[in-house]
Structure to design on (144 residues):
């Protein structure tokens, strides 16, 4: 299933979050390890100061596996279905693990991309000069 996540960076966690992204330790040890960096490369910070991203999660409870990793840096404000569960091929049993390569949230992700600003850029500016070039370059290339 895919979820729209809204969260706020915990006060004082900006530098440690940036460091975890830069050294690629964000989510280390989780079964969804690489997903965390992808989420952050596509995340947007909106006018209400929430960071928003679409996350793929196969847990029976949304973000059951991921929540402890996110909560180290974020206060999770809201997690909601990113599309109709009845249409989710993984959820309805018609295709196991379908969410990994599904485009069911493409419109939502496109809308998010036009909201606010790139979270990594904002995070880098908030904590000073940053070396998140690889993640920023991946994001730029994806949207060209």
């Amino acid at each position: 299933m895919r979820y729209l996540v809204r969260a706020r960076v915990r006060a004082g966690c900006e530098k440690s979050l940036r460091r975890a992204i830069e050294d690629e330790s964000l989510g280390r040890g989780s079964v969804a390890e690489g997903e965390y960096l992808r989420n952050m490369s596509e995340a947007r910070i909106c006018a209400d100061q929430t960071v928003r991203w679409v996350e793929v999660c196969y847990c029976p409870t949304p973000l059951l596996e991921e929540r402890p990793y996110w909560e180290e840096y974020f206060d999770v404000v809201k997690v909601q279905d990113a599309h109709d569960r009845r249409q989710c091929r993984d959820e309805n049993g018609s295709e196991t693990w379908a969410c990994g390569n599904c485009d069911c949230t493409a419109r939502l992700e496109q809308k998010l991309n036009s909201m606010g600003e790139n979270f990594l850029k904002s995070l880098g500016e908030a904590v000073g000069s940053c070396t998140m070039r690889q993640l920023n370059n991946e994001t730029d290339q994806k949207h060209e």
About this structure: The chain has one domain: 2-88+107-137. The mean pLDDT is 84. The first helix runs from residue 14 to 22. The longest strand covers residues 2-9.
